[in-house]
Structure formats: C-alpha cells, structure tokens
C-alpha cells in the first residue's frame, strides 16, 4: 500500500475556471509545455486557427472555435502527476463545467488583467467556493496594458468575497513586464528570453542587491515595485495555508501565458500548495483515498468519442484504492459487476490503454449502456458518493423528426445525449417520445444536438422553440396534469414519470404558487 500512498500524495487534480478568452487554452498548453508533454508549444496551434487544438475533437468545435467537450490531460512535473480537467469554455456548457468541478481537488482561476473578474468566472468561482476547494488565481496577459495589480486584488476581494495573497508581484507592466518578485524568498526572476512562447522561457534569478537584476529595471519600475511591496506588507492579508486549503484565501500569481512569463513560477508553487486527493463523504461515511477498496464516481459521459466506433465513454474519478486493468467492479446503482478491461486515459487527442491508476486520476471506461452521471463504482461495497447536481434548463424546444423512417435512431440519439447530460428530455403526457421536449441551458446546445444527431445518428430534425424559461417539478397529493395546467404553462413528464411544469418566467411561477397552495414546486426532481 505504501506505493499507493506515494502515488496519491504526488497527484494534483484540478480544473481551470475562467471567462472565455481569458487564455485558458493558452495556459493549458503552456502547462503541458512545462510538463514536457508538448515539446514546442507552438506546435499546438490555437483552436482558433485551422489546426487541431489539444482538447478539441468535434468538427463543430473547430468551426466555431470553441471547446464544447471536456477532456483530461495528464503529465508529470517535478515528481508530481498533474491531472488537468479541461472544461468547455462556452457558457452554454457551464453545467458540464460544474460537473467537472466535482471531480477536481482544486481550481485555478484565470483572470485577464485587462478585464478583471468577469461573469463566467464569478459563476464558476461560486461553484468552487460552495465545494470548499482551494482556488489559485493566475492573473494573465500581464504582457499587455491592463488594470493595476493592486486594483485587481481589490476587485477579487470585493466581487468574490475571498481574501487574497499575492505570492509574487509583477515587475513592470505591459511591454515592460520583465519579471516577477517572489514574496516568500524575496528573489527576483527576470525573464531573459524573447517571450515568443514556443519554448520554456529562460530566466535569471537574483535579489534586489544584485546589480545585474536592478540594472535590468529602469528607475520607475524599481520604485513602483518597492512601493507596491511596502503597501502589500502593510495592508495585505497574511499567508495562511489553512485558509487556502479551505478555499477562503486565494494565492495570486502574475504572468503571461502567451509569453510563458511566470508560468514556471506558478506551476512550482502550485504543486507545493495544491492538495493531493483527499477523503470524500459518502453514504457510508468518509472514504479515504488510501483505503484498499477501489471506488470512484462517474462525472461525465460522452457518446461517440471515436466516430469509427459507436462507443460511449464514462469518465470516472478514482477516489480510493488502485485501479488495475481487467479488474471487476460493482456498479452500485444496479448491483451489476463489470470488468474494466479497456480503460483509457486521454492525453491530448490520443487515448492510451492504462494498466494502473490511482485516486485523483480520471479514467475513461466503456459504458455498456448502464451508467448515469453521478454513479458510484466500487469493488464490493454499496456506498454512494454525493449526487452531482443537475443543471437548470433555461430554454426549451420541441424536437421533430423529419424522416419518420429514422425513428429508432432518433430515440436512441436523444436518449444517449440525455444520458450524457448534454440536454434534459421531457415528454408531453399525451404525445410521448415522438416529439420530445428538450431543455438546455444555452442555445448552442441545440446546435450541438442538431449537429450530433445528424453526424452521429444520421437523423435530421427541426426545432420548434417554446416560450418557456423555467422548469419546476410539481409535488403534492394526487396531482394530475389537468390540475397543473393553466393558460400559459406546459405540463410535461421527465423520464422517471415525475410531473414537470414549464413556466414562461418567474412571474408566472410566482402567480401559480400563490394561486395553488396545494402544490410545491421544486427546482430538482423530488428524489434528488
Ligand atoms: P480561452 O478562450 O480562455 O481558452 O482563451 P485562449 O487561450 O484561446 O486565448 C484567447 C486570446 O487571448 C488568444 O488570442 C490568445 O493568444 C490570447 N492570449 C492568451 N494568453 C495571453 C497572454 O498572456 N497575453 C496576451 N497578450 N494574449 C494572450
């Protein structure tokens, strides 16, 4: 078991949270570069160009220049095993990101120095905060003109209500961004490279008494650094590892993912401070990663990852024990035993068969068609990890099949995409599955639905958009659809037969709640 403990301790599993365009793709690629996983970062072209990017696999993503799906990237860095849970950048897929955050032990919050704390970052931050996971902040694009670092810290504290502790401080701004000052060691790292970003940037390390270091700064840069540091020492929060672990204080790092400045310093500090996989609550109490019995939970399901094979991959976060290829595990919700013979790990676009994996790792396992998001797998026990919350759909459409001959593929496609969690399916009590009503959080999800049904299932559909924005599960005694129906709502059922009412807006929900006090409207299915 000591081998397993060693493996657990060296793992760091995290996700990057940010607003689109803050530089997540760029930073991910640079972390891979520093991890030696990609020789030349330049070789991994931005997905906004015509080339493939690391985490893209759908044609649609390349067309639209957005990352729709998440994958997991693993690399070694200074004796540590890093797992980056890649998350979709587009806000229409934020619930996919929420689920992925359930599998992360910490988060890196990436902020564009010119834009500060943006909307999407705020939402994702709150999900992390609720889970109490440590949040590390990387302030990006310091090579460009942006807000003053002190103002950015202030903004983080005010907008997000979290304390911050700058681990380092930028020397110069914009084009004059020359290096960083490390507050723990008082050492200065000057970037001596050109900053094209294709290779690890060369640096020179010294302190403020080193003339070679101070000589490289002009007087105003030097004075500004001194002033800022004095202010921080006087007025800033103290470094406190306990508060970091609880997610109440965020360590802040400055840099530029584009030029690589500050990326190495961030990674070195992150592997020291970020938590290794730790215990998790379950229905049978706390489960420790080092316990012998293998266990984990599914946080994501993806159909047709490989267009050559009609397969479904479930992504499993290992929480305890050791995974060995070919082992038999128990699918707790059904009690079925499943042999995991072909589990894969995904590195960039290649999937490799893995022999062994440890807590903190994510493995992709073939789904025989029984897995749902949130399911627990164990060796023999019957416990379950915490449920993964379902997203709230905000837009709705009725889906019509164009060619009735394709009905079978249509039902299968909708069912698989529902299991993936990409959409939520409802049915009209009288119509059934012929023309299901689909709920999603963003309009782009409908585009993906249309695209995937066509390309993966050969089915053409048309969408009839519906004027609703809220779905509520209705509970009460002997409810019937007739009792819930009003002039401007729609009563449907979910896959488990629960009654769901679609409302136009909050106002009509409130009106209905006032009118009919026998009914309780829930945001989630009654069993969740
Ligand atoms: P994502 O949407 O968060 O994945 O953002 P990308 O990584 O695709 O970056 C968005 C844009 O910002 C691209 O044009 C990048 O080249 C640019 N970018 C990313 N990091 C930096 C940086 O540190 N400095 C500058 N100047 N541009 C950056």
TrEMBL record:
GO MF term set: GTP binding; GTPase activity; translation release factor activity, codon nonspecific; translation release factor activity, codon specific
Record-annotated Tr-type G domain positions: 9-278
SUPFAM superfamilies linked to this entry: EF-G C-terminal domain-like, P-loop containing nucleoside triphosphate hydrolases, Translation proteins
GO terms classed as biological process: regulation of translational termination
Family: Belongs to the TRAFAC class translation factor GTPase superfamily. Classic translation factor GTPase family. PrfC subfamily.
Protein name: Peptide chain release factor 3
Organism: Desulfotomaculum nigrificans (strain DSM 14880 / VKM B-2319 / CO-1-SRB) (Desulfotomaculum carboxydivorans)
Binding site for GTP: 18-25, 86-90, 140-143
